[in-house]
Design a protein that fits this description.
alpha/beta; Uracil-DNA Glycosylase, subunit E; six-stranded mixed sheet; 8 helices; globular; binds iron/sulfur cluster
């Protein structure tokens, strides 16, 4: 029987050689994701940006550094969670991924979710939030961030603002996007602790 590591290697190979959508022609590197394969907590963003495309890693560059600070603010570490994106290759000029690109790439994300079997998925930004929650709500992320949505599979999805949005909105006062994200992260941390205790 094949171990999980072999399956991840195969997935990495499939993604790096994938030509299912036109993003393959402009990517430097595909970005499958990274972190713990045995976690209950998964973060899913929109897609790789320029730094991610250059390095083949998710959530790096300025937005990634802010993301690390957000994790640290609730004593979470990259090594204990799993990070990935809706699409695995960079959309040119960081445009929003097209519907067909999202659909073509969904098989890889579904495989990752099946392998990790998370209890909580944090949908980072509007694209990820729409992807998981379009059947639950048509509201944008500013209206639903921090709320818990239960998927049929039992997974809890919680949307938060994307760090690149927070870079453009850097105020810290009560009610600001950064302040709200910190509150959302405290909630996620608490839920994650509860899940760990139940395992
Ligand atoms: S974005 Fe996804 S579907 Fe498109 S080429 Fe990359 S891996 Fe394949």
């Amino acid at each position: 029987m094949r171990g999980n590591e072999d399956i991840w290697e195969e997935l990495e190979h499939q993604v790096s050689s994938c030509k299912r959508c036109k993003l393959c022609y402009t990517r430097k590197n595909s970005v499958l994701g990274e972190g713990s394969f045995n976690t209950t907590l998964m973060f899913v963003g929109e897609g790789p940006g320029e730094d991610e495309d250059n390095l083949g890693r998710p959530f790096v560059g300025k937005a990634g550094q802010l993301f690390d600070k957000i994790l640290q603010s609730v004593e979470l570490d990259r090594a204990e969670i799993f990070l990935t994106n809706i699409v695995k290759c960079r959309p040119p000029r960081n445009r929003i991924p097209e519907e067909a690109e999202i659909e073509n790439c969904a098989e890889f994300l579904n495989a990752q979710i099946a392998l990790i079997n998370p209890k909580i998925i944090v949908a980072v930004g509007n694209v990820a939030s729409n992807y998981f929650l379009s059947e639950h709500t048509k509201l944008t992320i500013s209206k639903i961030r921090g709320e818990s949505f239960y998927l049929e599979s039992g997974i809890i999805v919680i949307p938060i603002f994307h760090p690149s949005y927070l870079l453009r909105n850097s105020a810290l006062e009560e009610g600001s996007p950064k302040y709200l994200t910190w509150k959302d992260m405290l909630k996620i941390r608490e839920l994650y602790n509860d899940m760990k205790e139940k395992i």
